[in-house]
Amino acid sequence: MIGTRFTKFIPGGNNTSFENLLKIFMQLLTITSGDVSEALNWMNQLDQQYKLTDGNYGMGDFIQELKDKNYIEENEENGTLIITKKSEQSIRRQSLEEIFGKLKKTPRGNHRTSFTGTGDEQTSEKREFLFGDSFEQIDMTDSIKNAQINHGIEEFMLTENDLEVEERDLKATTSTVLMIDISHSMILYGEDRITPAKKVAMALSELITTKYPKDTLDIIVFGNDAWPIEIKDLPYLQVGPYHTNTVAGIDLAMDILRRRKTSNKQIFMITDGKPTCLKEGAKYYKNSYGLDRKILNKTLDQAAKCRRLGISITTFMIARDPYLQQFVREFTKTNNGRAFYSSLSGLGDYIFEDYIRNRRRRVK
Fold this sequence. Notes:
39% helix; flat; two-stranded antiparallel ribbon; alpha/beta; Rossmann fold
């Protein structure tokens, strides 16, 4: 029988004490860069202040259940508690649900475009067979019908002119490099900017690996230098005593994208500050006090190179300083890219919307 079954509502009945505490624990792991001891210490303080547990289920029970369910384990070298791969994936999944909402998985992960061609999804349109069309595209029912009309039933024959083909959506694959600024300014002035950046990176990586597995996502961090990191490293990401070498980050991103065979290539750059550093040979040229013209010119040169290579750069600025916004506008104009001036809370929405928008276009 098709219908809806109603039951008595029990407050909190869908979540156990462990599941409620696990969500808080995963958030704290992101903030503490994967430090289990510090996250548990914070949870104990929260429990004392806000009574997270009751007399039947305490923090000791929660810690034991974390071990039993393989969320944490002891480091064999020094005996400290560390998170497992299961926890790393849970953090990414929770970030995805928090930032992008619950997204349904699809069996294929390519991006829909406004073009037709050899794709995975049928449309309602039909056309005559053309050289190069695959056998799977042929609509056999309509083709046989055409053959009966054109040649009759008694001398039945099926020719190329009888064939009809089902048009399909051409789906594009996209290669994305996500650049994350880990300079010291990401935690200056009492504002934690690195945690929202990490959450967005984890959510985007989970989105791409689950919903669009044919796409590629590379993640790089940049301070005085730039280097790639793996998705599993994201929960542990921390800022350092670095300046901001945007040139090094873009140069590494271009090098990665040159090796990708896709036609759609893009860079997402999350930053809160101005470029303040260049590497000249073995030495670093630094200027933290203003928009240094020498550094800016090198940065704009990189933006122009990306434009010539067909690589768009989308800059997500999590700072509101007018003079920085002026530089970003100049940088964006040079690359013919896009820029978003986002608060920390809106960063995920901007990146999600821009990623979805970009996957519908086709770069020629």
